[in-house]
Amino acid sequence: MDPSAFVVPTCHQLGYMLCYKSHVDELEDGIKKLVDVRGSVHHAVNEATSKWERIKSDVHRSLSEIDVDHCMARLQELQYPVVGQRKVVSGVNLSPRNGTPGFTSGQVSG
Known about the structure:
This protein has helices at about 5-20, 20-50, 55-65, 70-80; strands spanning about 80-85, 85-90, 90-95. It is mostly helical.
C-alpha cells in the first residue's frame, strides 16, 4: 500500500482539527453578516410594503429560507467546551486518554 494514500488524507484531517477555532470564527463572522443583511432586507421590505410597492417572490422566499436562528444554534453546538484539559465536541472527548499506546510512549502500536 502506498503510504501517501494514508498520509495525505490524514494530514488533511489534522489540518481541520488544528484550524478548528479559525473555521468557527469565520463561520461566526459570516453569520453576523447574515444577521445584518437579514435586518437590512427586512427593513427595506417593510418600507416598500408601507408604500404599497410590490416585493418580488424571490425576496420573500429568501427571507423565509435563510434560517439565521438555526445557524446560530448550530454554531453554539460547534463551539466545544474546554473543561480542565479535556476538549469535548458533541459529547466526544478529544483529549488522548492516559495509557493510550502511541500517545504516552511516542510509539505507534501496530
